[in-house]
Amino acid sequence: MRMPINWLFDPTEWYRIVADPLYLSFIIVITIAFFFGPLFCGWLCSAGALTEYLSKLVPDRFKIDLSRTVNPTPIRYGFLAGFILTPFLGGSVCCAFCNFSIFQRFISGLTGELQALAYWSTTAIITVVIWFVFFGLFIKGGRGWCSFGCPIGTIQSLFYAVGSKLGFTYKLKYDSSKCNGCGSCIKACSMWSITKTDQGKGISVSPYSCNVCLDCVAVCPQEALSYSKGITETHKPIQLEGTTSSAVANRG
């Protein structure tokens, strides 16, 4: 589904809007993201799930933890901007820079279609190293590629961020009155979308990177996180002993 994004900004490919079923798939995916969140990323993405699950087999001492030092959101949206601008520069990164395409060829080769392995290029090999090894097996959460370099995931997150502001859409919701600041949700989030607030007790969830996998909901012992309709909450000022809530808010 990266291809429709690339075609959309290439006038020579506009005929595909009515001729190629991939456009219909693209529209369905972003529509679902608007009303329910990027469910394709969190629940159906085989390429992202592969690296996430295999990374669990690598001991934590061998993994790179960028979650505390790098904010992936501006990087992933910057990459999306570059992806969109590529057709205007006469280029295309639809398949050469696509972990889905590589994953498909790899599985096809294992199941007997040896010709699929013959299409490997230098770019594909570099992509494997970045997606599967560096951003997969040896990075915290195993979803570094999803966090930094997946344009279709970024577009879904953008539609989700807009939709999550509306009361009739589904989204990840946070109830600060139930939160005890244990940090279980932060450890469970493979997309590094959950961070502690300045006060240190509550959390903040970024819809611009969350893939609504709901792992955080499953591990929260206080049920402070949920998935439902309504207006979402990021965090509220925490009442500290001997202060007023307004004073805390001002200091924060």
Automatic annotation (TrEMBL):
Entry's Gene Ontology molecular function annotations: 4 iron, 4 sulfur cluster binding; metal ion binding
Cellular component annotations (GO), alphabetically ordered: plasma membrane
Taxonomic source organism: Desulfitobacterium dehalogenans (strain ATCC 51507 / DSM 9161 / JW/IU-DC1)
TM ranges: 22-54, 75-102, 117-139
PROSITE patterns listed in its UniProt record: 4FE4S_FER_1, 4FE4S_FER_2
Key words of the record: 4Fe-4S, Electron transport, Iron, Iron-sulfur, Membrane, Metal-binding, Transmembrane, Transmembrane helix, Transport
Coiled-coil segments: none
UniProt-recorded name of the protein: 4Fe-4S ferredoxin-type domain-containing protein
Domain (4Fe-4S ferredoxin-type): residue spans on this chain: 170-199, 201-230
Pfam families: Fer4_10, Fer4_5
